[in-house]
Amino acid sequence: MRISKKQRIVDRPIKTGINIFFSVFMVILFSCQIAEKKQDSDIKSFLGSTLFIPQSMETEFNKYVNSSENLLVIIIESEDCHECALNNFNMLKYYDKDFSTYKTNILLITERENREEITMLLKNKSINYPVIFDDNHEFVNKNKFMKNPLFYTFVINNKKEIVWIGSPITDKRTWDLFCKQMQKNKR
Length: 187
Description:
Elements: H1 5-46, H2 55-65, E1 70-76, H3 82-91, H4 96-101, E2 104-111, H5 115-124, E3 131-134, H6 138-142, E4 153-157, E5 162-165, H7 172-186
Parallel strand pairs: 1-2, 2-3
Antiparallel strand pairs: 1-4, 4-5
């Protein structure tokens, strides 16, 4: 069977479109895999590293670090929806008993320019975790792993070494991994 010249002209854009779609799909797929591998590599390289505490925050920060074996730190940026972030922070209350088991306290760090808004939201939501206000965004700027907002939640031990990166309450699997890691740290 012979394909007419007209049919070949019609089929060519379709084949070209399919080839372009497939090429774009493969680029996206490999880009995501590369980004995910980089993120995993970043996490592994930052675990065990020591957190830098700016001098302006040191006294207050040390008070919380030294009061337990671990400290879950959550950073809220000025661009974040504070109400949303504090709703997530509020969810931690349901895990208080578990965090106590692993001798893990919770600390919120945010920028000083949001002091009134954050203080009011904390009060309205009955959140009683401590807050440190970061002058000039120095805390995030001095800790290079925090250039990625996915790393704005992490756990340090009382030596200020990073032992966990990410929110431990994302889902059941993450929580189980967190508990296993905290058990390992207790030994």
